[in-house]
Structure formats: C-alpha cells, structure tokens
Amino acid sequence: NAFDILIRNYNKIIALFPDQELATDNDNWYTTYSTYDVHVENDTLFPPNRAELKMNVYFTEPLSVEDYFEKITAVLDNRVTFSRISGSERVYLNPKTPVFLEMQHLLEKYFQQPILPKAENGSSDARFFTGRGFPILIVKVVGEGHHTLEEYLHIPSIVPLYRALEEFVEIHGRINSDVLNYVNQKEEAFREIHS
C-alpha cells in the first residue's frame, strides 16, 4: 500500500524535527517543516500503488541544502523516491557585523527606542542572494498575522522604517553592480520560462 509506505517514511522524516512544536510567532528560530499537496492514487479494488506529498523545510542549523537533503534521504527506505523541487541556503547575518550594527543604529535613531536583533524562521526572496555572498538584512514594519485574514501592520511604524532605510541607502550609495547584474539575469530567466 503506497499510502502506508508514504506515511511510515513521513513519520521518519518528521522525527528529524523535534523542535517543530517549540516554534511560536514570537520565538520561531527552530528548524521546522510544512507538509502540503498530499496525493494518493486510489483504486476501488486494490490498495493505492502511488502516493506523494510535498514538504517545505525551514532549517536554522549551519547546514547546506545538500546536507539537509542527505539527512532526510538517509532515513528513508528504498521503496520511496525522494526528490528536491527547489532549495536555497538559509539567510543568516551575524548581528555583530558592521552592516547589521549600522542598520540597528539607524533603526534606533528613527524609532527612538532600542531595537534588538531577532532571528526568524521562514523563507524570504533574500535567500537567493545568500549563496552570492551578499549581506542580507531583513527588516519589516511592525505587524502580525502575515498571510492570514487577520494580517495587519502598525501604520506609524512605516515612516521611521522608511527614514532608516533611506539614510542607509544614502550612506552606501547606489546598488552594487554585482547585485544588479544577478537580479537582471534572474528576471530575464523568469521571463523566458513564463513567456
């Protein structure tokens, strides 16, 4: 029964993520997963001979995508085909780096309060730049409920964030040409695929 085999192997995979239940909205720097798109080909006379599911893994450990792929593959039995649809390295910037400290100073200046670094689990388009060696700093306006019907943002937080970003860009000048070339290449490839 393909579905039974899938579930047994799925349970082996999720056992690799003991911190899944520890993650909360306020403290989510844990390796977690999200399962979706479960499909089983049923037959009225026979057990299912094909079953599949898709899973996102958000990892916080200093491992590569390939390391995680191998870690998961190692627990699966040989009746399961496991493939990677996409992957990108984690986004992490040490809070002691000059670019981080400078942005923190600007945020504190415009918000007029201490701004503490916070690591968050999840994904960001910034992940596409991590492998290129660009420092990634993710900032956001104050708000909660992202991607839900209850999503909101605190309107008064927009202007201080804008001012901090504006000053940061003024200090550092125009965008690095390597970043710009990389973005242009990705946009061109995307247009070719979707045209």
Overview of this structure, please?
The protein is an alpha+beta fold. Helix content is 37%, strand content 12%. It has a two-stranded antiparallel sheet. The longest helix has 17 residues, at 177-193. The two termini are 41 Å apart. The model has no long low-confidence stretch (mean pLDDT 83).
Report strand order across the widest sheet. Answer: 1-2
The number of helices is 6
Considering DSSP H and I runs of 4 or more, what fraction of the residues is helical? 25-40%
Rounded mean pLDDT score: 83
Radius of gyration: 21 Å
User: How widely separated are the two ends?
Assistant: 41 Å
Query: pLDDT below 50 for ≥5 consecutive residues: which ranges?
Result: none
Number of strands: 4
Shape type: elongated
- Roughly what fraction of the amino acids lie in strands? 5-15%
Class based on secondary structure composition and strand pairing: alpha+beta
Largest beta-sheet details? 2 strands, antiparallel
Q: Return the string of H and E elements.
A: HEEHHHEEHH
